[in-house]
Design brief:
This protein is of the alpha/beta class. The chain contains 14 helices and twelve strands. The protein has a seven-stranded mixed sheet, with helices on both faces.
């Protein structure tokens, strides 16, 4: 067995169970402060606040905050209240930051949002908007895997045990009739949990045969010779499923609704700008990724372009798909059936959408106090 395989196995065995921490995919080992601001605070402070603290990941499924920071849209909406941001590697760390007050609002995947809500007995957070849909694919080595029925005996990577992509792969394999132990990842198909930073190297060195991963990791694997065997959009109604939500501390939402509304206004306006200015948006995204506080370098054109195109920004949280993703985790045996009633509060989002002449978003019956 190669040294790389030994190292990957060590990483996999060190990952906690989903009931301890539901992860999400990102880059970097810990939260980093983003001190760069395209627009300086100017004007009255919102809710009398000196600052609003936001958190997100440095990847393309978090395009909204990255581009909104680069263009200055978030700071414009906050006026004289300074925007402070932190970049996270994984969902559990961001949830911990939200719970401790290190951040007030965050962009995060569905699995850690669910876990954070359930572990706090519905007291820690609310999902207040959507941010992104799609952007997840199964990429394989075409020399080893020729079709979707050719996965038996192969090793497929996901970012973390119990994270959103891990649950999606386990659910897909079960539907195809493959037997896999969810916790160990062993079975007809070996599910190997490794960090997105490691995945391209593992793929090139042959330690894995494929990976179910988000952007831009998926496009990195394609650039390295991989083949897109399945775009996860194909598995969802209308090709839509939540990959990134906006969450807020319940305390902050109660005490500073005007500040939350300002951030949501910036999010909605940024998403509209992304849709109407795709060429400028992808440049803004790559420029922000090059910031030393984010990824530290821009991505090559053959990676950033498809990665950007594969992610759909959305204000709608696609609430029905959140419930379905939770059901998949329960079916995989990684999560006890959660009560998600009250996880959404779309009041301020729908106020912003109405002011912009847009249709309101639906919480699929998961709203309320």
């Amino acid at each position: 067995m190669s040294a790389v395989r030994h190292r990957l196995l060590a990483v996999a065995t060190a990952v906690p169970l989903l009931t301890v921490a539901l992860g999400a995919c990102g880059y970097g080992s810990e939260a980093k402060k983003d001190t760069a601001a395209a627009v300086a605070p100017k004007g009255p402070k919102i809710d009398g606040l000196d600052s609003v603290k936001i958190g997100f990941f440095g990847n393309t499924t978090h395009a909204t905050p990255l581009i909104g920071l680069q263009t200055g849209q978030f700071q414009k909406e906050l006026g004289g209240t300074a925007l402070q941001s932190s970049v996270f590697n994984a969902g559990p760390a961001e949830i911990e930051a939200l719970n401790s007050g290190a951040i007030d609002i965050g962009w995060i995947g569905p699995s850690p949002a669910i876990n954070g809500y359930v572990k706090s007995h519905g007291k820690s957070l609310k999902i207040i908007a959507g941010s992104a849909s799609g952007g997840v694919s199964l990429i394989v080595n075409p020399k080893k895997i020729s079709g979707l029925d050719d996965l038996k005996g192969k090793t497929i990577a996901t970012p973390q045990l119990g994270n959103t992509q891990d649950v999606a792969l386990l659910n897909y394999l079960a539907q195809k009739g493959y037997k896999v132990d969810a916790t160990s990842g062993k079975g007809d198909v070996t599910v190997q949990r490794i960090d997105n930073k490691v995945t391209p190297t593992a793929f090139q060195q042959g330690s894995i045969d494929g990976a179910w991963v988000p952007e831009p990791t998926a496009s990195k694997l394609v650039a390295a010779g991989g083949k897109t065997l399945l775009d996860e959009k194909r598995l969802w109604k209308d090709g839509k499923f939540v990959i990134t939500n906006v969450i807020v501390s319940q305390r902050f939402l109660k005490e500073h609704p005007k500040a939350v509304e300002a951030v949501l206004s910036a999010s909605v306006k940024t998403n509209a700008w992304i849709r109407s200015h795709p060429a400028e948006a992808v440049k803004a995204l790559n420029d922000k990724l090059a910031d030393p506080s984010i990824a530290g370098k821009a991505l090559p054109t053959d990676i950033i372009d498809p990665a950007f195109q594969n992610v759909d920004v959305t204000d709608d949280p696609l609430a029905a798909t959140l419930q379905e993703e939770a059901d998949h985790a329960v079916q995989a045996g990684l999560l006890k059936k959660p009560d998600l009633k009250g996880i959404y509060d779309l009041t301020l989002l729908n106020k912003v959408l109405k002011s912009e002449g847009k249709r309101p978003a639906d919480d699929a019956g998961l709203g309320g106090n």
